[in-house]
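Teaching assistant here, posting this on the class forum so everyone can see the example we discussed in section. The complex has three components, and the goal was to see what a joint structure prediction looks like when all of them are supplied at once.
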Amino acid sequence: MAAITFITGGARSGKSSFAQQLAESLSERPVYLATARIWDEDFAQRVRRHQSDRDERWQTLEEEKELSKHALGNRVVLMDCVTLWLTNFFHDCDYDLEKALEQAKTEWQKFIDQEVTLIVVSNELGMGVHPENEIARKFADLQGWMNQFIARQANTVYLMVSGIPLKIKE
Amino acid sequence: MAAITFITGGARSGKSSFAQQLAESLSERPVYLATARIWDEDFAQRVRRHQSDRDERWQTLEEEKELSKHALGNRVVLMDCVTLWLTNFFHDCDYDLEKALEQAKTEWQKFIDQEVTLIVVSNELGMGVHPENEIARKFADLQGWMNQFIARQANTVYLMVSGIPLKIKE
Amino acid sequence: MAAITFITGGARSGKSSFAQQLAESLSERPVYLATARIWDEDFAQRVRRHQSDRDERWQTLEEEKELSKHALGNRVVLMDCVTLWLTNFFHDCDYDLEKALEQAKTEWQKFIDQEVTLIVVSNELGMGVHPENEIARKFADLQGWMNQFIARQANTVYLMVSGIPLKIKE
């Protein structure tokens, strides 16, 4: 069973930087598990900016959905991020919320059934005015339910606010 | 005067589940005070999903606006939620922010002038990008002001994040 | 070097009221540094409402961008707020995120290079669903990065939730 640190918070709240520092403090050879599907040039730019933040100590794995197919036993793994990973399930399930949630939970359970030190980055999406767009509203539900699911299993949970980690579970 | 626990947080952050567990730990026969006006099938589904989470111990009261007309002396009451209740005032006041806020505050004061143990669920709506839609922006103001009003009276306040209750006032 | 208290949170979460009380507790003659550019009648109303919250103890300075040109040595200064100040840079840079961020950081560094007690109000914009509008998304990035920049320098940071100050750095 994985030991999980869950890091959530708003966009541009410093989640990835904090997660990277944490991983580097725990391992000399951490694994970066990138879940982004490259949808457009904006995404490609963000991925490149994040890559340039990491030095040669990092091993990068790209995996859009099937996290569990990688054998990561006893490694320190930074999964960045749940939101992009869920987006891939949601898209491939034709925006069916229940189906995407079930597939993601099943895959997640398989993934964490190994001895890894897992640092998981996600996003808080529910504290703004609820979107008028139905797809966006469903995605916020998917994200919220998955966050609850992962946070319940996590040993430690941080909420990032303006770059400051606030420990909310330990 | 009511003893108030106020639970706020994002959409799908586990507010209602936490509130229900809290009510069940305090009473063998809690009251569920449902404030939803059934606007459409999406709302009807959410109401049914929440109902199926509650067992026969619960007594359900449906009340869109006039909370104070129910005599609830010495009961444990879960009011779910402030957002839907405010929506009804806002709609019936033709989206007049000041008028809706005044009516809601007046009704609220009457409601809490009784010896009940009150658990109140609300929403944080102000931590996203401010909406372009003026009605939505006004509603976020209404929600924010009412949250401040209730939280000031509350004995205990929780912020829910990814299913984790963070006590911010006690 | 300024001593900085940074206050962030959602819209209508009580940030300005809390900041004013804090300033009044620290000085008999605090300075209110207003950064709003008056774009429309809605803004004008908000400015007037905030002004009427302050009494004759307050000295008001209006400064849309060049905070550093005011000599404020040894005063208690409430800067309200970072969001409106950043909006002015973003607008005047034709919505160029990198350019606005660089100009704002440079100005900020000059501003805090004086012996003032600074109370800074900002906004959390990143915890809702990411906006579809590209300009809005860029502004949320700008705000998030500037919040991290200021919070890192701050001695004390509060997150306001429903009117309750939650100290997250001290």
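For the discussion questions: Chain B touches chain C at residues 6, 8, 10, 122, 124-130, 132, 140-141, 143-145, 147-148, 150-152, 157, 159, 168-169 (CB under 8 Å). Strands of chain B lie at 3-9, 31-34, 59-62, 76-80, 117-121, 156-161, 164-169. Think about how each of these relates to the inputs above.
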